[in-house]
Amino acid sequence: MSAEPDGPEDRLRRFATIWSRAVFPVSPTSLTRPEFEEQLLPLARRLSEALRARAFDGAEARAIGAALVDAHCTDPEALSRTLDCVDAYLVLYCGDDGSQEDQRARSARLQHAMAAGFAHALRGRTLAEQESIAQAALRAQGVVAQALHASEARFRAVFEGAAIGIGIADLDGNVLETNAALTRMFGGGEHNVRSRNVRDWTHAEDAPQVWRLYDELVSGEREHYHVEKAFYRPDGTVLWTNLTVSLLRDPDGNPQYQLALMEDTTERRLLNLRLRYEATHDALTGLPNRTLFFERLEKALGAGDGQRFGLCYLDLDGFKTINDSLGHAAGDRLLVEVADRLQACATAPGEMVARLGGDEFVALTTGRDTQREVDELAGRIMNALLAPIRIEGRELTVRGSIGIVEGPAGERSAAEVLRSADITMYRAKSAGGNRYELADPEADARAITRHGLTTALPTALDRGEFFIEYQPLVHLGDGSVRGAEALVRWLHPQHGVLGPDRFIPLAEHTGLIVPLGRWVLEQSVRQAREWRERYAASATVPLRINVNLSPCQLTHPGLVQDTVEILESAGVAPDALCLEVTESALIGADDDLLKPLRRLAEMGVDIALDDFGTGYSNLANLRRLPVSILKLDRSFTQSMQQFPADSVDLKIVEGIVSLAHSLDLTVTVEGVETGAQAEQLRILGCDTAQGWYYARPGPPDRLHDLALVDASG
To answer: Are 48 and 57 in contact (CB under 8 A)?
Structure first.
């Protein structure tokens, strides 16, 4: 066994040797095989460099294809063997240590560009030959008429030696002369071509204008025409050609003969069809891919005359878990099985299934009654997924979520339809999965708005679009202002002022809540300093600022350090700050989660348990939480707006207040909207309250007005 080539030059030489051995037998050349190899070696080097180049250079690959024609490798078989050789050996002998998949993809693109360059160069050579033949043919008219021996000899030399097929017929279409190249195209044997009539060569795929152009030519109305035309060979196979037909006139200018020049494009066409298939079909499942699906969808949406469409967008539930637990190979086999089942669901005319990527599939139906058909199609898909799929000895249960979009053609673009289907599919998934949902324009609009807000969030903070409003905290005993809660708002350029419920969940999802929360804390603490300086003489107790803390901030490792730095930078004592944490965030919290809150509490920062009573927490857990304030949820005070208040609610609030006070906790109540509520809560022993009865959230100067009223009272 021979050793593998040692260095890059040896491997390059090996590739050139394989290439020359493949192409030499079908290349008309006077060179020996080793000489021919030396001729291909520079082209092999250029191919190797193109494979390893940082950026893909299609022009270089096309130039290499053209160089093959210059090297007299003009037989279509030479191109076919070249592409096979490049496909099989280029990455093997000329690749580097990078991704094999990326290099094979680069090799495929190089093959495509080489084929295009080869075809372009061969076309140029053909056109040059056509010009030479046309000139010879014109001279041949005189030869035929005058029997001039010298001109006849020149014409015959060009006629017989040309690489393209040439045929001469009379005006009735009877074939009079053919050269060897044309005879080979039709399978050999002059009887397959000679004495035939041109009109016998009709083909089912002839373009409508082919025979109209022919009639105009033989009648003398046009001098030539060029078309792509297919011919049936005697063995039943199809010959595809670029056909140029010219009219030959006698010395007096009368039509006399027709001259046909044929370039065999069969191999090139098959190559293009193969490349087209690979470009429009999924390599794993064989289904149409995103490119072909969009072509079909755009065609369906462009149809008129009452046509409608229905689209099912499927995403498998829990596919990532299967991939992570069983591996990608098992995941691929699962996708292939799912693809087969989906393909069996869409067999009616106007239906197709495609794979968009990953575990996402789409099914399309078109017609006049798609409202019923798309619903049935979705049902068939859900039923097809019911049976378990057996992979590696395991039976896997597969479920899917489907978003359905249906409507008349011509109203929406393909991108809009797919976006709506995608949004609807995620709505089905968020509802528990294993179901399908119909598109809802209002839900689409909300999702699109939510996406727009999500993408605008990162720059909104830098552009200064956020601001803070403050809602006063009032002591129920003496009515004095004890501080305020900081509530962040977003002044959006298009949507106006947005409350925290519109963007805080998005900020938590994107991770922006940490820098946004720090900004809110900085602004609020600075405001607390200004209040304390302004009301130092008149306030009953130093004013305090309450700032909400999200669960994401609670788990951020820099929480304590950031808080300390902000307080020190503002020159404010820790007791000026109260951090509000929702009860649900602390349910089942372990010591690691509570540690930063304990450190802040030990420093003197108050910790309030917000929305208390909504998280179903164990009241006994209050003893282990580092909180000093309970904030009762507004749901406890709603019944107190009516008279008489619900006795059960009164007893619950009374019990909570009693328990809180026994644990040295103060109680704040949210959502106080009437004087009756405020009085009832005061009687029950609640300490402070906030709500519209006192003031709506507003600018910081609003607190100044309330404080003046309090001081004057």
So the answer is: no
d(CA 210, CA 230): 11
Bridge pairing between strands 308-317 and 399-408: antiparallel
Output the DSSP codes for 452-499. Answer: HHHHHHHHHHHTT-EEEEEEEEEETTT--EEEEEEEEEEEETTTEEE-
What residues contact 176, with CB distance under 8 A and at least 6 apart? 168, 169, 170, 257
Encoding tokens for residue 291? 């490119």
- Residues 127 and 133: their CA atoms lie apart, in Å, by 9
Rounded Cα distance between 201 and 698, Å, is 87
Beta pairing partners, 697: none
Structural tokens at position 115:
């084929």
Of 513, 519, 578, 523, which is closest to residue 550 (Cα–Cα)? 513
- The backbone torsions φ and ψ at residue 282, rounded to the nearest 5 degrees and listed phi first, read -70, 130
Separation between Cα atoms, residue 134 and residue 260, nearest integer Å: 10
User: Where do we find the tokens 């209040």?
Assistant: 531
Q: Give the C-alpha separation, 473 to 543, whole Å.
A: 9
Q: At what angle do helices 76-94 and 100-146 cross, to 10 degrees?
A: 160
- Considering only CA atoms, which of 694, 654, 652 is closest in space to residue 673? 694
Enclosing H/E stretch for 131: helix 100-146
Share of the chain above pLDDT 70, in %: 89
Contact, 199 vs 298, CB < 8 A?
Answer: no
Compute and round to an integer the Cα radius of gyration of the chain: 41
Q: Strand, coil or helix: what is 240?
A: strand
Beta pairing, strands 435-438 & 399-408: parallel
The mean of the pLDDT values for the chain is 85
Q: Please give the C-alpha separations between residue 611 and each of 301, 548, 580, 586, in angstroms, as whole numbers.
A: 50, 11, 9, 11
Q: In this structure, is the dihedral angle defined by the CA atoms of residues 697, 699, 700 and 705, taken in order, positive or negative?
A: negative
Residue that has been written with the tokens 């995103």 in this structure: 290
- Structure-token pair, residue 605: 């920062």
Torsion of the alpha carbons at 565, 570, 571 and 576, rounded to the nearest 10: -90
Kindly report, residue by residue over 91-150, the tens digit of the pLDDT.
888 888 778 888 888 888 888 888 888 888 888 877 776 666 666 555 555 544 554 455
Burial class (CB in 10 A: 0-12, 13-18, 19+), 630: buried
